[in-house]
């Protein structure tokens, strides 16, 4: 067994143009004052981290890490969720996902993909320079528009989609292997890796590449009505990153998992601040500890009711209350005894 590290916080949803959320120093002091011990850093904003520079300069990485450590914080993972998404974009989503790309690359899907691949590779190199062994990302999606089998999927469509996805990711994964970093795909609706079976399809398509791993976030499984507890039993060996985010699913006679095209507030399945939804975090922390998953518990705030400031204030304590100090003793050790085989045979009455 292994004690989960934390509490930590994902900074992406807290970035703003107002202090303290507009500088790295401000964010670090704010997070540390709330009781967090780690931060997961998104990599799109160069004022947070410059991937192009970091991949080339150990000095830059040492100074960045030193600054963050000076606040009593560790870097849990870097995040390329956005860049990973742009590794594979179905044409139906080109215009919407173009908003995530640098302006010079918009309306140029090939250049956008090339940039995204380069960025994720640089994140692998930078992670190693920072002494980080896990990385958080998305897989991107070529098949998502076809997740519901109507019209019927042509034979070979799904296989081709996963083969193409693997083809794009394999050169990236080889860089992760070279630098000894695990690529942890957040299993998430909208991505081709959105449940257990799609993760297995991708793993097979990459020839079981050892750097293909999982960022476990149970909130997405509640929205799919997938058993998020037994998911850990199936995939614990791949879980190398962990988001603590809550969600709830409250269907009515008018709406269910599809959501009826409603906004987040009015969907049957919606995200909540940790502790405000339906998720059994006590069992999740127990399972991850029992299986020895070496992860940080990273609070991700996405809630349609509670403010981000309150969610962050409550999140550190919520995680701390759930972290289990893995025992090194068995509760009945005091009653143990040492006997030999002869005595054991007498106990069983087989002499």
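^ Assign residues to that structure.
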């Amino acid at each position: 067994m292994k004690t989960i590290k934390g509490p930590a916080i994902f900074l992406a949803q807290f970035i703003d143009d107002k202090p303290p959320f507009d500088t790295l120093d401000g964010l670090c002091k704010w997070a540390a004052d709330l009781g967090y011990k780690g931060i997961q850093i998104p990599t799109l904003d160069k004022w947070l981290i410059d991937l192009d520079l970091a991949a080339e300069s150990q000095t830059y990485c040492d100074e960045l890490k030193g600054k963050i450590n000076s606040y009593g914080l560790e870097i849990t993972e870097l995040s390329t969720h956005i860049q990973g998404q742009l590794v594979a974009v179905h044409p139906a989503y080109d215009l919407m996902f173009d908003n995530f790309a640098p302006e010079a690359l918009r309306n140029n899907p090939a250049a956008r993909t090339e940039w995204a691949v380069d960025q994720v590779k640089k994140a692998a190199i930078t992670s190693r320079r920072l002494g980080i062994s896990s990385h958080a990302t998305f897989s991107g999606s070529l098949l998502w528009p076809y997740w519901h089998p109507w019209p019927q999927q042509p034979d070979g469509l799904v296989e081709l989609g996963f083969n193409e996805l693997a083809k794009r990711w394999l050169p990236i994964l080889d860089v992760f292997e070279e630098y000894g970093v695990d690529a942890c795909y957040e299993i998430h609706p909208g991505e081709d890796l959105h449940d257990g079976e799609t993760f297995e399809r991708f793993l097979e398509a990459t020839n079981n590449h050892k750097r293909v791993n999982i960022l476990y976030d149970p909130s997405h499984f509640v929205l799919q009505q997938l058993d998020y507890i037994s998911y850990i039993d199936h995939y614990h060996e791949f879980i190398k990153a962990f988001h603590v985010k809550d969600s709830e699913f409250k269907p009515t006679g008018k709406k269910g998992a599809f959501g009826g095209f409603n906004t987040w507030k009015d969907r049957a399945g919606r995200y909540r601040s940790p502790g405000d939804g339906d998720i059994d975090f006590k069992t999740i922390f127990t399972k991850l500890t029992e299986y020895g998953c070496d992860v940080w518990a990273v609070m991700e705030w996405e809630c349609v009711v509670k403010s981000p400031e309150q969610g962050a204030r409550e999140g550190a304590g919520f995680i701390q209350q759930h972290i289990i100090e893995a025992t090194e003793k068995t509760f009945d050790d005091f009653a143990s005894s040492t006997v030999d085989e002869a005595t054991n045979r007498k106990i069983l009455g087989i002499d």
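The domain at 5-348 is CATH 3.20.20.150 (TIM Barrel).
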